[in-house]
Amino acid sequence: MSELKVGIISCSGEECLGGTISRLATRKVLEELKLVATVTLCLPLYLAGGVEERDFAKVFPTISVDGCDKLCAKRSTEKYSGKINGFIDVSKIIGNETALNTKVIRNKDLTDEHLQMVDQVASEIVKTISNISPDSYSGKTFGGCGCGS
Amino acid sequence: MYKKVKVVPCSGIGKVFGLMAREAVLKTVLELCPEKSETVCLAYIVTGDIEVKEKIEGSNCITVDGCPKMCAAKNVSIAGGLVIEKLRVIDTVKEHKGKKFGSPTQLDADGEVVISEIAAKIAKKINELN
């Protein structure tokens, strides 16, 4: 049976807490939750014209994780690689006001409450991945991402 | 009116250097130079939305990249930002050979030391402008 690979593209937005949560939840899924072979796509490289990243998102199911309702990662992925297979708006999960907090952004400032939010978003990512049909797998010839991740 | 310097990291998610770029920038804009600098989401810059275009175009920008692909510097330039300094995490990391900096998720103590040094470099540049 072919292995199902899924790409996760996080906004990692630097201006607000939602970006930090999106990044940490994406990392958590990658490191801890071995549901399927997940690959994080480096958004800045993707946006700078990274061919491997864009090709990956064209051939493998890909979901976006955005910290706020601007949905920058979703919009960029769709612009360069076509329709995505699912998206998560962190602000819908943790609340808009919390997501747009511009004071608490650094990892070292996160509280237990914030880490629970990371878990919550990670669960949503897993749920979204679970809803992807294995039939959407088509990336047999893909060689890997440009940044080596 | 004085326009804050925009400091933009790559925040690359695949390696610790992306996190180091991100944390160094956040330390600068939140702790060292909050009155003179601010960050702007790189993913937002690239959308080309009018609001962010107005913020970046013609503004003094400092970029911090985690890998040699220089994605933050490239994207900020494309968006019309005046990139006055392009910092690379790797240049400061080279001065700390043999150290462990952490993971793309969490920095170790040595990682914190390096990001403090990078933040100091960014702050120095910002203060030179004012």
Describe the model.
The complex is a heterodimer of chains A (149) and B (130). Chain A is an alpha/beta fold and 149 residues long. Chain A has one domain: Rossmann fold. Chain A is built from 7 helices and 4 strands. Chain A has helices at residues 17-31, 43-47, 51-59, 72-81, 90-94, 96-99, 112-130; strands at 5-10, 37-40, 62-66, 86-89. In chain B, strand 3 (60-65), helix 4 (71-78) and strand 4 form a beta-alpha-beta unit. In chain B, strands 2-1-3-4 form a 4-stranded parallel sheet, with helices on both faces. In chain B, helix 1 crosses helix 6 (109-129). Chain B is of the alpha/beta class and 130 residues long. Chain B has one domain (5-129): Rossmann fold. Chain B has 6 helices and 4 strands; from the N terminus they run βαβααβαβαα. Chains A and B meet through helix 1, helix 2 and helix 4 of A and helix 1, helix 2 and helix 4 of B.
- Mean of all residue-level pLDDT scores of chain A: 84
In CATH terms, what is the fold-level topology of chain B? Answer: Rossmann fold
| Unreliable sequence segments of chain A | 139-149
Helix count of chain B equals: 6
Share in helix of chain A: 40-55%
| Sheet with the most strands, sense and barrel status of chain A | 4 strands, parallel
CATH class term of chain A: Alpha Beta
What low-confidence regions of chain B span 5 or more consecutive residues with pLDDT below 50?
A: none
Distance N terminus to C terminus of chain A?
Answer: 24 Å
Topology at a glance:
The complex is a heterodimer of chains A (149) and B (130).
Chain A: E1 5-10, H1 17-31, E2 37-40, H2 43-47, H3 51-59, E3 62-66, H4 72-81, E4 86-89, H5 90-94, H6 96-99, H7 112-130
Parallel strand pairs in A: 1-2, 1-3, 3-4
Helix pairs in contact in A: 1-7
Chain B: E1 5-9, H1 16-32, E2 37-38, H2 42-47, H3 50-56, E3 60-65, H4 71-78, E4 82-88, H5 89-93, H6 109-129
Parallel strand pairs in B: 1-2, 1-3, 3-4
Helix pairs in contact in B: 1-6
